[in-house]
Amino acid sequence: MSAPSSQRAHGRALLAELGVHLLVLLAVVFALYPVLWVVALALSPGDAPEPRVLPFASHPSLEHFAAVLGVGAGSEAGGGWLFGRQLLNSVLVSASTAIVAVALATPAAYALARFDFVGAKEGERALLATQMFPGVAASIPLYLILDALGLLDTRTGLVLVYATTAVPFAIFQLRGAFAAIPKDLEEAAMVDGATRFGAFLRVVLPVVRPALAVTALFAFMTAWNEFVLAATFLSREETFTLPVVLQRYVGEYDARWGRFAAGAILVSLPVMGLFYALQRNLVRGLSAGGVKG
Amino acid sequence: MTGSVRRLAALSGLAALSLFAQLSVFSGDGAPVAKAQDARRTVRVWHAYDEAEARALREVVRDFERSPEGQPYRLEVLHVAFGAYAAKLESAIPTGEGPDVFIDAHERIVTYVERHLVQPFGALSGRERFDFDAAHLEALTVGRALYGLPLALKCGALYVNDALLPNDPATLEELEALRAHLPVGTYPLVFEAESAYWDAGLLHAYGGRLLDSSGRYAFFGPAAERTLAHLRRLVDTAVVPAEASGDLVKKLFAGGRAATAIGGPWLAPDLPRSLHWHVAPLPSVRAASGAPLVPYVTIEAALIATRAREIEGARAFARFLAGPKGAAVRARVARQIVASRTAALDPELVRDPFLSAFRRSAEHGLPLPTNPRMRSTFEPAQRAIRNYLRGGRSARDVLEQGERRFDDLVRPLPAERSPAPALLVVSLGLLLAVAVAVRRARDPHFRLAVKRSLPAYAYVTHAVIAVGLLVIAPLAVGAATSLFAGAPGNLHYVGLANYVDVLTARGGALLGTGSFWLVLLVTILWTAVNVALHLLLGVGLALLLDRPTLRFRGIYRVLLVLPWAVPSYVTALAWKGMFHRQFGAVNAMLSALGGEPISWFARWSTAFAANVATNVWLGFPFMMVVTLGALAAIPQDLYEAAEVDGATAWQRFRLVTWPLLAPSLGPAIAMGAVWTFNMFNVVFLVSGGEPDGTTDILVSEAYRWAFTRSQQVGYAAAYAVLIFGVLWIGTRALGRATAPDAAGTKS
Amino acid sequence: MASLTLSQIEKTLGTTPILRGIDLDVTDGELVVLVGPSGCGKSTLLRTIAGLELPDRGTVKIGERDVTHLAPRERDVAMVFQSYALYPHLSVRENLAFGLRLRGETSEAISARIADVAQSLGLEKLLERLPKQLSGGQRQRVAMGRAIARRPSLFLFDEPLSNLDAALRGEVRVEIKKLHAKLGATMVYVTHDQVEAMTLADKLVVLRAGRVEQIGPPLEVYKHPASRFVASFLGTPGMGFLPARAGGGRVKAEGVDVALPDGLAAHEGDVVLGVRPHDVRLLPNKTKGALQLTVDVVEAMGFEAYAHGHIGGKPFVARLEGDAQTGVRPGDVVGLDVEADGVHLFDPKSEVALTAPPARTKGAA
Questions:
Q1: How close A100 gets to chain B, by Cα (Å)?
Q2: Are B205 and B364 in contact (CB under 8 A)?
């Protein structure tokens, strides 16, 4: 091959690369722009609205953040430690939700992927149905059930509610992951001396770890951002989760969107961190789920 | 009935619980420990106050606990988010888990009485009678019983920016004249011109009403037409900004961009210290023969809940909170316009210009009617106003439409029917099910199959119990309420009447605005467009990011999933702000590019597009990540083979990538379609159904029936069941049309 | 080590019978190969021995133990899977140790055993790698190592070589043969490859549609196939089958006139004559022979050649030895002689091999 033509090919590849970066950057701008508006809203206590293109606060101030964190003027008494406590609640509730949801969904998804049993098809349909049914009229019955179980106003009850809501999607997700694992692996383990459950624990679960991580992340997010059920079921400040507290900035007559935005940013920081930490798993976990969904 | 249900529920929940008990990582869920050591009796107080008011309440509570009458009591105060307040009261009070005292607005009392959520307060002493305004007590009386003590008044008044306007305006027309003297972008007056609540002030000045004294819709006729014409003039001449939300009003005034603003006392805490302002009475309207603007007044009251456990304590605290001592604290700390006359006569308060201006405004105001139908007037009235201000329709036309809409919303509840036919059908169904079960149980093949299934059941039982109890049971109960009508707590059986009403569009045109069928069409279009764009963007970006040679892939990937990580209720609001006609970033971009600004929510197509843009933004990361995952599973050598075969990039995608991708995307698409179909947040928060409810989808319509209209829970449940039916049939049909394993339904 | 006894194993999946009454005895230290086309039930049979499938009827005994209803882990068998089934999350060392650990061996014993196995299979340098970092051949060896390390009473192989390329396959085949000699272990080996079957087996079991078609030492089965099916399954190129009529000590058809050897001379009536390509001799100068082959194609291999053609309309292949091939061209009609022990007769209906008249009546019954 002559030098000039190879150079031209190289140039074309570089141009293509540049084009890809340009397209992706465009998408990044699209993805970031509204988020930056939220940030601008949180940083601009006194700004008058202007028809602006660039989402930056003209007089940035941390006033809203300080108020939400309970450190500055205008914050509620009891602020700082309460925010910490409620952050802890959110973390505990969301993490427990993730654990319980995965614990509930994993064996069930495995059974659906591996066993042929009476009621499997019906069960799967029922799971799908739960995703289709808007819960408009379901919150009062749920309240009564929790009351009957003595779980009202407990984080345990809230975790159970969140976890079960997350279970159907988790089962779909994990069933795909399990179906993608060759049966030989479990059989080899069983021949090697494991029980069926032992093979599931020692071989299958470690192999689907990325999918488990992603499923747990989804369940975590369901709990992390939810406030209506939390506010309905919890009746003591010290058990509140963060979104419940945040939502108090939206009152009957007036909404303090700046505080709300500041709070929302604070609330979503840990989730972003989780996303970043799990981004590799995110792709792999979904791929296992996607292959034979 | 409830007893046996509870036992059953408790029993079947045990298994799930025992599992959870092992996993539970935190303690302290039990009853507060302090209770045991404290001899005082506990009084529970619930409220949905804002920051300053909550602070004032805490101070009053402290004072009460130290006072002689409060000595025996310990108060437990719960600050509930307003968005969950009603639902929480409705759920908690009937089960005895509710508060003893709660704070709420007077206009909801009748509804609460109907639902047995509040109990009469009892007789007042003569001194107390004297402390409160008779009109305020009257507003809190239903039948002959007084249900609460008035705490504070909420109404609008005129905020004046001292720098822009040296003298208080006497008339609205003076403010209109100010237009010529203010720079562009600064307004003589800001208020929510498209809100029926705020426009009522002008309507009242012209002698009109939203609801007349006998509970009939009254927003029509000459007074209403003149109100609309005046509003239009205010907006068209830019005396008042268009599409102003409460937040925009606050920001414009706080930013010194408005000479005056009409708003409630809650506007004040957010105004910067650098701004010089004061509050004045509302101006009068020369065009209405000099009558003043008459704002609605809400009387906030302390109410005693039914099933209160500590009634005496509850009353004692309500008296203390409403009385002069509590009122003084509330006025001082939260700058409330307190109802207690003794407190209000305190010289210091009288001298306070803010409080006295609001007090005068409230004295001239009109208490919001307590009739529950009042709630149903806002939506039709608001739509009439918006249709008039944004579209080119005649006043009479929009007002007539509003009237019809009101009749539609307060539709008479279907008559009670005997549940006998339903019970017959249910028992026949049960009998049939039992018969089938018995026959199958006798079938040896089936028995063998069940026997072989036993090991599998060990894996699924706990999930079945948990999901059955906490997901399926509440949904089933919810679905069953579709056979009832009335407000929660006051339901009666109506058979299939709700369904008949929904499917016949309540007797209106089958494809008329708000009819089930039209909304269904919009919903289907909404789902199709969104899913298609999610796919296009998600798959496209995934293909770009999947190039192994691409630099910064990790960073790109994280940035692109950001929309997923930030809570959607706040980003949806950011999007709504971006589509604002005057201050939105989208229009700013358009004008920077030389285009005309668009009133996004005035036309169906643009409002729909705004919703779609928001939802695509929210949803594409999921599709992208799923696609990335699926791409990772496609062996690289397939591409190389195709490339060797001379396939172009597009051919490679169409012939190699897509066929391998499609089956694994199937479940994600199906899920995405179901979620989009029921994507309530975006529609409700961005367009809010505008213009005129035409961008509402089935779920947001169901939500309105359940919560913002006359709380017809049964009717909303019928919507929910129909939504479920549509999705069920739709996904199954799609599943059949595409490859059997592609739709994820596997049925 | 132990013997294996299967009796009357039956298995039905849904309504399809997979195994229809299988009897098999494997003596201690024997290497038995189960062979047959796909779908014949050989894998199911192996999995039944392993305990991964439960038979509907019949018993499985390992040694003197009835293991029919025991779980796989209680049977003391090891299995090498076609896919190798290496645990992807475990290193080679952990893969080898997996079964030992589950059986509660001490860690010293485990490392000793691993060192031993790794040394004999040449895996020493791979012990810390993950399966995905190994080549196909290496994976295969790890899979075998995992079985060997366990020292089970019975080894099961499920088509262990089918994922390897041809050259490697031959190599590993020899290795397995050596291994069997060294360990003296009882092995059951499933394959559809007749070369593996012939070369490895002490005893060959040919399965067809869930039944045992023939059992015997490989050469015995090759030389005396019990049925047309077995005859066609073993040997490349395959045996030619020519419908013919027997009578008077000869068997005749168009282009066929073969004298029957002593044992078969008594047969009369319609038969199918079976002749392997290797059992014919080319007659020089177009002499009329026992078979008249019309040649279509000649495949020259250097040291021998195959003449593909037909006899009386039926396809037939003849092996041509040495330089005799040079004279044969497509279109030629050549005469072939058949070796006396190369004549096989089959019943045209039951397809059972005809040996002596009593066998015929048995086949008809």
A1: 7
A2: no
**Residue C155 CA to its chain's centroid (Å):** 17
Determine the Cα–Cα distance for residues B723 and B726; give it in Å rounded to an integer: 5
- What is the residue range of A93's domain? 78-291
Distance CA B504, CA B497 (A): 10
Cβ separation A185–C85 shorter than 8 A: yes
Size of interface A-C (CB pairs under 8 A): 64
Residues A50 and A190 in one domain: no
Nearest residue of chain A to residue B271 (CA atoms): A46
At residue B617's C-alpha, the angle toward residues B613 and B621, to 5°, is 150
What confidence category does residue C325 fall into, taking pLDDT thresholds of 50, 70 and 90? low
- Distance from the A88 Cα atom to the nearest Cα atom in chain B, whole angstroms: 11
pTM of the complete model: 0.84
pLDDT one-digit tens code per residue, C257-298: 898 888 888 888 899 999 999 999 888 777 788 899 999 998
Q: Where are the domains of chain C?
A: 4-228, 238-364
Same domain, A90 and A146: yes
Which CATH number applies to C238-364: 3.90.1100.10, 1.10.260.40, 3.10.20.340, 2.40.50.140? 2.40.50.140
Average pLDDT over residues A272-279: 82
pLDDT at C98: 93
Position A153 scores a pLDDT of: 87
Q: What is the pLDDT of residues B9-47, one digit of tens each?
A: 443 344 344 444 434 444 444 444 444 466 889 999 999
CATH of the domain spanning C4-228:
3.40.50.300
Closest CA to C149 of C190, C107, C186, C111: C111
Domains defined for chain B, CATH in brackets = 38-152+298-367 (3.40.190.10), 157-294+373-409 (3.40.190.10), 515-691 (1.10.3720.10)
Point out the residues of chain B with pLDDT beneath 70. 1-38, 637, 710-711, 737-747
Q: Nearest chain A residue to C52 by CA: give it.
A: A187
In a domain, A69, yes or no: no
Bridge-based pairing of strands B41-47 and B101-105 is parallel
User: Cβ contact (<8 Å) for A290 and B558?
Assistant: no
Question: Which residue of chain B has the CA closest to A130?
Answer: B472
Q: Which residue has the higher pLDDT, C170 or B507?
A: C170
The strand pairing partners of B659, in sequence order, are none
Using alpha carbons, select from B103, B99, B109, B75 the residue that is nearest to residue B305. Answer: B99
Peptide bond into A141 cis (omega under 30): no
Q: What is the pLDDT of residues A98-107, one digit of tens each?
A: 999 999 999 9
Task: Measure B292 CA to nearest chain A CA, in Å.
Answer: 23
Site from A183, A184, A191 to mutate, C interface, most C CB atoms within 10 angstroms: A191
Q: Are A128 and B272 in contact (CB < 8 Å)?
A: no
Residues 167-196 of A with CB under 8 A from B: 167-169, 171-172, 176, 196
Assign A182 a pLDDT band (cuts: 50, 70, 90).
Answer: confident
Out of A100, A254, A260, the one facing B50 most closely (by C-beta) is A254
Is residue A14 within 8 angstroms of chain B, CB to CB? Answer: no
For residue B691, whether the previous peptide bond is cis, meaning omega lies within 30 degrees of 0, is yes
The Cα of A155 is separated from the nearest Cα of chain C by a number of Å equal to 36
pLDDT at B747: 33
Residue B717: list chain A partners with CB under 8 A.
136-137
